[in-house]
What does this fold into?
Amino acid sequence: MAHSIIVGGSNGIGRFLAEWHAARGDDVVITSRDAGRAAAAAADIGPNVTGIAVDLADPHGIATAVEPIGAVDSLVVTVMEQGANTLAGFDIDLAVRSVTTKLVGYPELVRALLPRMSTGVSVVLFGGLAKDRHYPGSTMVTTFNGGVSALVTTLANELAPRRVDALHPGVVGDSPRWRDGPHHSHADRAPGHHGGDCRRHRLPPVEHRRQRPEPLQRQGPARLVSRRHGGTPDVLRYPSPTGRSVFPAGPASSVRGGNA
It folds into this structure.
């Protein structure tokens, strides 16, 4: 039996992954910052799933929090701590918490679990496409997701031959982050919504397309080769973050539906 750890597995992309691993018979541990939420999600997913509380924004407590975890064959970290944070209304506490979560919490989590990792382990750290596609208020999000790309290159070297990768999704229309967001400008054309039909949209003439990257929140489906924003299953199929091959190791893959 494989042992899979999904950090942030109580909802969103992490929940989808936990269900996938549980369905194939893995021994699964999911985490949430709240112990009750983790336990409830675990009970809902299946009898081979355990829920524990882990807060990556509290790096000093991570090692103690993950003590109940045994062997690790697959580790996927989908935790995000983000929000619009403009310079005009800069929230220092939010900035510190969000950066700490990914750039301190991620490596400390890997360090704490390293003695329990098999040599064929797959470690996947989730970032976000805002590392390349900025939008107003994304200064910190763009910064720490860019840092995740750099982080996996060093981790891949230190953990070799274990596999370490980063996955940077764009708009994931059926995830709570985008589905329930009050300013989701693409909600009617994203998976999980039924208000629009992306097939009606046509690409603008080449000479009218912007040459600079479009901010994430302004990328309409018509600008994507796929003509739609992705859903959770799309993200997890490219490439499957659940494989146990040591190849590839160290790359940062972006999942966005293609640029038109």
About this structure: The longest strand covers residues 117-126. Residues 3-170+232-254 form a domain with the Rossmann fold fold (CATH 3.40.50.720). Confidence is low (pLDDT under 50) at residues 184-213, 224-229, 243-249, 256-260. The chain has two domains: 3-170+232-254, 173-229.
